[in-house]
Specification:
Elements (H helix, E strand, L loop, with lengths): L2 H10 L6 H15 E5 L5 E7 L2 H15 L7 E5 L5 E6 L2 H10 L3 E2 L4 E2 L12 H15 E3 L8 E5 L2 H13 L5 E5 L2 E6 L2 H11 L2 H13 L14 H24 L7 H12 L5 H7 L6 H21 L3
Antiparallel strand pairs: 1-2, 2-4, 3-4, 5-6, 7-8, 8-10, 9-10
Helix pairs in contact: 2-3, 2-5, 7-8, 8-9, 9-10, 9-12, 10-12, 11-12
């Protein structure tokens, strides 16, 4: 699996709890993959088209979370010799209207349907900007193999959308540029440190850690992350340890469940999963009761031992 696919696979499981953020991510998917089709009866059909099953799955889950509907509201049509293109259509009148109102494609002044890239009200909050960027990357983005070069891009069909996306990234101090390729407008980042920050903005924390590690091994550790305040000599070890801890916790969660751990270990595991770059002292301070760095380190080692025992029992 490519690094770009790994990032998208991680983002597939990132669902914001706030409805306004869910709508912002949906708005991004509609901006890149959606269209409105007038019907003979005066109503409208919403269609989302993608060649990526991850995008299709994320769209369905966001629709369910934001509007409380089941997959039964979606009709599927597949195109191509290997069914590579997925068309998902929604024709329920009330749901279509609710979606159009939520993503601000319904103009209330003249009651017209006006598709927009990112309505200012939809991406008004910082968290919603993060969600929209995540949805845009899922729908039309890609990342190069960081072992070869650093390149993050999102392909926009129109200049206005590209400039809006560039401004959104600039809000997070990400210096994106825009270029034209085959009649499309490409919003891109070339600096490794900006790409790692962008992964953080989108919520791809594990992928961010993996990119840090590649950057260290390529000898540019001095420019990795403004938030990491440790010496270069210790940075590689710290990041590798955090990545391994997360992988061990995710393995336990995905095999026997997080409740397999006792309360003390479970507390540490949940905090580490939610805070991939948090140091041991801060993790300990958030425990109840608080625990020192050595105590947190002991619990994380114990979690690692449990993960290895589970792998061994499964012959992995």
């Amino acid at each position: 699996m490519s690094f770009s696919s790994e990032v998208k696979e991680e983002l597939k499981g990132k669902i914001d709890s706030a409805k306004h953020c869910q709508i912002a991510e949906l708005a991004a998917i509609f901006a890149f993959c959606g269209r409105v089709i007038p019907m003979p009866d005066g109503n409208f059909l919403l269609v989302v088209t993608t060649e990526n099953e991850i995008v299709a799955g994320k769209f369905v889950e966001l629709l369910s979370k934001a509007f409380g509907v089941t997959e039964d509201y979606i009709d599927y049509d597949y195109e191509g010799s290997k069914n590579t293109t997925i068309h998902m259509s929604i024709q329920d009148v009330e749901l279509v209207e609710e979606i159009l109102m939520a993503i601000k494609w319904r103009n209330m002044q003249d009651n017209k349907i006006v598709p927009v890239f990112a309505h200012s009200l939809v991406v008004q909050k910082e968290c919603c900007k993060r969600a929209f960027i995540r949805g845009a990357f899922l729908a039309a983005g890609s990342l190069s193999d960081p072992n070869k070069n650093y390149h993050y891009e999102i392909v926009c069909g129109h200049e206005e959308g590209a400039e809006q996306l560039k401004e959104m990234l600039a809000f997070f101090k990400l210096e994106a540029k825009v270029t034209i390729r085959k009649n499309n407008y490409i919003v891109y980042l070339k600096e490794g440190i900006h790409i790692t920050d962008c992964l953080n903005v989108m919520g791809a924390f594990v992928s961010q850690m993996e990119l840090y590690n590649v950057m260290i091994l390529k000898g540019i550790s001095n420019n990795i992350n403004r938030q990491v305040n440790c010496e270069t000599a210790n940075m590689n070890k710290t990041i590798e340890a955090a990545v391994k801890q997360i992988r061990d916790i995710e393995y336990i969660r995905d095999t026997v469940g997080i409740d397999y751990l006792n309360d003390g270990l479970k507390q540490v595991a949940l905090i580490r999963l939610e805070n991939s770059d948090m140091n041991l002292k801060d993790i300990g301070d958030r425990l109840n009761p608080p625990v020192g760095k050595s105590g947190v380190n002991h619990r994380l080692r114990k979690i690692g031992e449990i993960a290895e025992e589970l792998r061994a029992s499964k012959g992995e």
